[in-house]
Amino acid sequence: RLSASGVRYLLHRVFVERHGWFVEGLMSRGEAWNSSSPAAFFAEHAGADAEGVFERRLGGEGLSLHEAAVFAATLESLVHEETLER
Asked: pLDDT (tens digit, 9 = 90+) per residue, 25-36?
């Protein structure tokens, strides 16, 4: 299981490697990797309900690798949809 800081780091590395994206809220900027939750990104892009689902999982037992992959795919989908809307 991955903690919130582990998921945040994993997402950051995946998005930089795969797309060259530096996603606000996932970068450490010299801070500790555990200083914020990656689920906070959902509040802005998918609403508080979506954020709450992931936040509860992260705050509890953490995410499995499969759940982290779903989380990453969901973020990619949100960014893709936002890009198409522009």
From this structure: 776 665 554 556
